[in-house]
Design a protein that fits this description.
It comes from Maritalea mediterranea. This is DUF1311 domain-containing protein. InterPro entries: LprI-like_N. Keywords: Signal. By secondary structure, the chain is mainly alpha-helical. The chain has one domain. Helix content is about 75%, strand content about 0%. The chain is globular, with a radius of gyration of 16 Å. The two termini are about 10 Å apart.
């Protein structure tokens, strides 16, 4: 199976595994569609010789959510939209992690597992700092959600890149 088909299959599985209605900041099928379209567009542009990165997709679904959902531009709405997209990136991160478990040598995967076990508390502590930095201000929830989205998306992209290199 080619790498692009593997990624497309992984994305489809991630989408099918999620409910079609948002629950507790879980991504929706519409969020999935926006994210998958962006991922595929970046992949296609790269295949055509243009240089694009998946980090260009970070915020894609959250921005649409904020623009289209009632209350999306409120502090609570922005936080909810970002956490919805965060849940999509988190599912991709987990898929890429499981795919790496299948392709890496066991000792190398143990190194990745150890790194991942350290990365999660680091991300959480870093985002808690951003939350606490804003004190009692209303921006604290938005700062936390933005941090979680960015950190998780960047880690998912990093694992995706490692998987790409491992498949070569």
């Amino acid at each position: 199976m080619s790498l692009s088909k593997w990624i497309a299959t992984s994305l489809l599985v991630a989408g099918l595994a999620q409910p079609s209605v948002a629950q507790d900041n879980q991504f929706t099928m519409e969020d999935e569609m926006h994210m998958q379209n962006c991922w595929e567009a970046v992949t296609d542009m790269n295949l055509q010789g243009e240089e694009h990165t998946l980090d260009e997709c970070i915020g894609t679904a959250a921005e649409v959510c904020m623009e289209e959902e009632e209350g999306g531009m409120t502090t609570i709405g922005m936080s909810s939209c970002m956490m919805r997209e965060h849940s999509w990136w988190d599912s991709i991160l987990n898929i890429q992690y499981q795919n790496l478990k299948q392709v890496l040598e066991p000792a190398l995967f143990e190194d990745l597992r150890d790194a991942q076990r350290k990365w999660i508390p680091y991300r959480d502590a870093s985002c808690s700092f951003h939350y606490n930095y804003w004190g009692d201000g209303t921006m604290r929830s938005t700062a936390f959600a933005s941090c979680m989205l960015d950190a998780t998306a960047n880690r998912a992209i990093e694992l995706s890149n490692i998987l790409d290199m491992s498949m070569m």
